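Lecture notes, continued. The same structure-token format from the folding unit now serves as the input rather than the output. Read the line below as a description of shape only.
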């Protein structure tokens, strides 16, 4: 049986773990939440990279992972290239804002992107966006909104703050400058945001389609591991680790994934 590490700044990567459990039921997942250092989106690139390396080393040494899913857009943006150099023999799957699927879906060409400040300011994000704009068969306009505080509020399950920040950021995004195409597709470019999707979808209205990356990342992980589409294997309960409060991670996994699993401390 393969052991796959799944890592995020906190509870957001559970949105990716949910898709991984559905796609690869016979795989053993070890989920690491760096909640003591969340949010990553407002930390420096160097800081995020150092935390990512530290947690990967621990998952490798203490949990014997065969592969890693970096279930965090911010950590992927700042650290995945170096991580692949440090572990050339280990498959590493990252998460990037779903700009390409959004471009394929959008009819108006107006695409909103909600993500952390760190992701939106990264060179990796700029390359992805510019490449798509340059090669698209028709004009595309990406409107990007940094969402300071939103991942942290989702981390705390602080519903009034989620509602207030979600409203502020969606309103800012939907006020397209005069002459730009109306936004009909919204990219959830942070793995925490699918847990606010119901609210964000309601704020955007029925004409806007929300896109996230959980399912495509799970498929990609299955391909990278060379596993068949439906193994029919019985589900293996994941191991949950947190550098913050393990009980908060276990509560989030119960609330959002229906998992009845205890979490342990991650000493990284
Ligand atoms: N969930 C993470 C992401 O996908 C990071 C959120 C944060 O810690 O700021 O970007």
């Amino acid at each position: 049986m393969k052991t796959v590490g799944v890592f995020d700044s906190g509870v957001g990567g559970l949105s990716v773990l949910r898709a991984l459990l559905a796609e690869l039921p016979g795989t053993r997942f070890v989920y690491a939440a760096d909640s003591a250092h969340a949010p990553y989106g407002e930390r420096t690139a160097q800081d995020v990279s150092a935390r990512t390396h530290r947690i990967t080393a621990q998952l490798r040494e203490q949990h014997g992972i065969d592969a890693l899913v970096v279930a965090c857009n911010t950590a992927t943006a700042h650290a995945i290239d170096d991580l692949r150099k440090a572990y050339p023999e280990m498959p590493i799957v990252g998460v990037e804002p779903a700009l390409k699927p959004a471009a394929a879906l959008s009819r108006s060409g107006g695409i909103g992107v909600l993500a952390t400040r760190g992701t939106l300011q990264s060179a990796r994000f700029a390359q992805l966006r510019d490449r798509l704009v340059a090669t698209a068969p028709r004009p595309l306009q990406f409107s990007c909104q940094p969402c300071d505080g939103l991942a942290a509020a989702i981390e705390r399950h602080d519903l009034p703050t989620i509602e207030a920040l979600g409203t502020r950021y969606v309103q800012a995004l939907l006020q397209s400058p005069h002459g730009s195409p109306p936004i009909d597709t919204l990219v959830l470019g942070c793995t925490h945001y699918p847990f606010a999707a119901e609210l964000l979808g309601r704020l955007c209205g029925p004409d806007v389609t929300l896109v996230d990356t959980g399912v495509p990342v799970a498929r990609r992980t299955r391909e990278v591991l060379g596993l068949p589409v439906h193994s029919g294997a019985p589900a293996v309960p994941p191991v949950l680790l947190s550098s913050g409060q393990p009980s908060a991670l276990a509560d989030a996994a119960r609330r959002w994934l229906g998992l009845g699993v205890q979490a342990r401390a991650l000493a990284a």
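Point for the exam: The chain has two domains: 3-95+215-265, 99-212.
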